[in-house]
Amino acid sequence: MSDEISITRQSVVNPKPAAPTFPTEIVDLPSRGHFYPPNSKLSTGQLEVKLMTAKEEDILTSPNLLKKGLAVEKLIESLVVDKDIDLDQILVGDKNALIFAIRRLAYGDTYGPVEITCPKCSAANKQNVDLSEINYKEIDFDAYPKGVNEFEYTLPTSKLTIKFKLLTAADEKMIERDIEGFAKLKKESSSEITTRLKHMITAINGDTDKVKIKSFIDNNMLAKDSSAFRQHAKVFSPDVDSRFNFCCTECSNQERVAVPMTVQFFWPNS
């Protein structure tokens, strides 16, 4: 009897299908990561984002997300490559820069035509905006310690010393909720300025009690001090300088005006 010839086959494990890969780009943030704690991934000053696909366009056209005002937020979450990054902690100015970058990568640099009202003669102008000309605000980062989001300012009239922070995306969400809640109680009034101040100011003359801070802002903060503080905070708040060179077709007035954020910004075919 002849020996049996055994036939053996190498065990084959079905490989997992490769995850689809998409082109990505690195977006430099206007803060350069300067005001984030060292252990934050945002402290690198950069975010890697993938280019938009049809999936993200579904997000932008979701009636439910649009109704809730969450479409752009969900879009950013979908496009940022590193899912371990807590996007609630991103500074508002950095988030604005991310929105501009995502729009440019998805639909190009031409935005428009959009209607722009001339600041001088009030004529309506239809113009295209070249988003590649939009720059970041210039900040003297050497004047502020790295990794610290806390600043000090002496109010010019009352001479009180306050400490404050730059707002994050999480702060913006709370501010919007607070403003909406106030509007339901007092429809004839606005709480935009005081609500923002309450979320920015963290101490008054060393006192960090939130109840006292809110009471001071509501009842004792002078308009001169409020205005001066808000102007001061703008100086070193990293953000997009969203102005562009505008020339009126009616009166030839030339000046830099803010890019109008219309529905065409993310929905250019609307």
How would you portray this structure in words?
The chain starts with 23 loop residues before the first strand and ends in a 12-residue tail after the last strand. It has helices at residues 54-60, 63-68, 71-79, 92-107, 169-185, 192-200, 210-219, 223-235, and strands spanning 24-28, 46-50, 110-117, 124-130, 135-136, 151-154, 161-164, 201-204, 240-241, 243-247, 254-258. The strands form 5 sheets. The chain has a 3-stranded antiparallel sheet. Strands 1-2 form a two-stranded antiparallel sheet. Strands 3-4 form a two-stranded antiparallel sheet. With 270 residues, the chain is an alpha+beta fold. The longest helix is centred in the middle third of the chain and has 17 residues, at 169-185. It folds into 2 domains: 24-114 and 129-137, no CATH class; 145-235, no CATH class. The protein is 32% helix and 19% strand. A hairpin with a 6-residue loop joins strand 6 (151-154) and strand 7. It is built from 8 helices and 11 strands.
Rg, rounded, reads: 25 Å
Structural class: alpha+beta
List the strand order in the largest sheet. 6-7-8
Average residue-wise pLDDT = 89
* Strand fraction: 15-25%
What is the molecular shape? globular
| DSSP helix fraction | 25-40%
